[in-house]
Amino acid sequence: MTATADFRQVAQYIGLAICALIMRTALWVFGILWGIVREIVNGVFRVAIGIIVAILSAIAFFGFILWLFTL
């Protein structure tokens, strides 16, 4: 009777350890994927902001040149 109970307890601990390992691995993989997605989104926003600033700078530059011609 106690051998069966000990075997069940050991099996339960092994099962819990395997479940914990699977959950830890899944969260680790999710963390890596989340980091990759976050870097891609930040890169896209950085490029978009750079393009907007470049367009506004070009507009300001040509506006300044036109203003100089009116002097």
Automatic annotation (TrEMBL):
<keyword id="KW-0472">Membrane</keyword>
<feature type="transmembrane region" description="Helical">
    <location>
        <begin position="44"/>
        <end position="69"/>
    </location>
</feature>
<feature type="transmembrane region" description="Helical">
    <location>
        <begin position="12"/>
        <end position="37"/>
    </location>
</feature>
<protein>
    <recommendedName>
        <fullName>MATE family efflux transporter</fullName>
    </recommendedName>
</protein>
<keyword id="KW-1133">Transmembrane helix</keyword>
<keyword id="KW-0812">Transmembrane</keyword>
